[in-house]
Q: What sequence folds into this?
């Protein structure tokens, strides 16, 4: 959702509408412990979270606590995956089809 409510508020209000086993894709520049907590909540509700983390290379990323300095971008994705969640890093929109396996290259 793109709006004025936090992800936590949306999850709290709408999670009962989504059946167990639903794949929930979060497309967001947010990262860190607040996002990991969201994934844990979704797992407890038997949902399957996936984070498409959008960021510009070499820039700071906005988290819920303000601006967080990035370590290596892949560290955050590794942390997500180590917990059993799906996560993808996208620094530009043109990377998305290839990242998700949908890009077709013709000679």
A:
């Amino acid at each position: 959702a793109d709006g004025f409510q936090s992800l936590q508020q949306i999850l709290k209000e709408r999670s009962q509408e989504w059946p167990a086993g639903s794949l929930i894709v979060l497309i967001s520049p947010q990262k860190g412990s607040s996002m990991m907590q969201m994934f844990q909540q979704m797992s407890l509700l038997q949902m399957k979270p996936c984070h498409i983390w959008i960021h510009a290379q070499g820039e700071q990323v906005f988290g819920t606590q303000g601006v967080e300095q990035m370590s290596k971008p892949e560290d955050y994705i590794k942390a997500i995956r180590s917990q059993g969640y799906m996560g993808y890093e996208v620094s530009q929109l043109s990377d998305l089809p290839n990242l998700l396996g949908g890009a077709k290259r013709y000679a």
